[in-house]
């Protein structure tokens, strides 16, 4: 095993990046241009087919950290580790599908989930969602650019900052003009490259290191827990917190909802199923490289788990494969970064300008200008923040909590006519406050208080289970699943959950937001007419309904 | 036997990826032909 990673020359790594971003840029120029098409810039033609839709969904969901984290999970938790990263992540793509159909049914012309919530509740709820989306996309952009800097600096003499700048400008170059359309169009090519490379690299590493027989011979390197496919440790430390976190990610992230509003409505189901399987297979497969490293007793260079995959590829395969690995990571981080830029521009165009400044009388050309300016500012901000290598854990935790807190209020608002703006807003704010108290150990987790928080978390677990069943099997079974999951988790978790702070705080956020939202909604006599949403959410390229009415009257 | 099980457990993922790669490519080609036929944009 090499103690140092393979190094490309500066010229080689520059050529690889120029080839990647140059090729992607040329691909984006094949799109037909329409200067005033604000809707196309945000959600393409809203008739994206199965192949492009599934490819874009998969490429967006896979970011650079997916490979590193899956391999780390395999290395840390053994046989079940990659499953506890990839399987739950994949399931979350599937999870959003039934709710996505409802979103499309309520607001077929929407560009963001925030617009739907604005039409349902008004500005405060929408801006909570828009703020969480903005923060999430900026963090994601920064993390992906950081990954580019780290990869370039580890595999070549180029600096960390050089990698960040090249990746940032590269992504901006092909996304700036056509926005979301370019993002989707190039996602397809990027995903095909990623899949083809994953198909080659996984077996290549396995057989280069001696094949499955060598792994079996070295299984003694694994602890009993690591060798167990049903490892409790792996589930509680990796699977369960991730499952809860990505559930929030699926609802709270604009990159996913943007695709939801863009794919052909008749293809939503197969698109989501295809993306689920594709994501799971690629990520779990690459996570297996971490398991291979564990069985062979490989120590990650400098103790950095992110070095595991490059280290294994570098040790067992020729430089050509390291080049493929380089493209794999650059492809994954670029496809997510371009989606972040598209998401950020759509939020500023639709949620901020369209709904709160222009009040549905938006000028499409001004919208496009705002969208492109947003992309430029976001890229510069992402490059600066990534260059400082900031510790983003607190911000990441905060955004995760915000997303967890909005899941129930968003879903309930789309199915239950009694949910009010007040219920939505207070549910999110109170859940966030309780989350912070638990997550940052601001309260002593002992005695009655700890039991109370664990019971709230059990309700949160019931909400997660209940929502999943509700989405696929309807209200009755959903309610039954809520009670069963809550009781089971309370039975097992009271006295134990306090040991798992990340899981406890995430579940508590779900539990508190659900309770507050439900209680305030039940106390209100308001009823909402869901048909109003379709009237209120407009296409920006076309005049609004009231404008058309005015024109008709004038003509008469 | 253990070798076959472990090997299959690892290799099944690239195999599924290959299958999905074929499916997505096929779907895109079909969408492309449809778009050309109707003179519409793919995205």
UniProtKB/TrEMBL annotation, chain A:
CDD domains: SLC5sbd_DUR3. It is found in: Cell membrane. It holds the Pfam family SSF. It is a multi-pass membrane protein. The keyword Transmembrane applies. The chain crosses the membrane at residues 6-27, 48-71, 83-100, 127-152, 158-177, 189-214, 234-251, 272-296, 316-334, 367-386, 392-416, 423-442, 448-470, 477-494, 500-523. GO terms for biological process: sodium ion transport. This is Na+/proline symporter.
Automatic annotation (TrEMBL), chain B:
The keyword Transmembrane helix applies. Keywords: Membrane, Transmembrane, Transmembrane helix. The keyword Membrane applies. InterPro entries: Trnsprt_adja_ssu-like. The chain crosses the membrane at residues 6-29. This is Uncharacterized protein. It comes from Halopseudomonas bauzanensis.
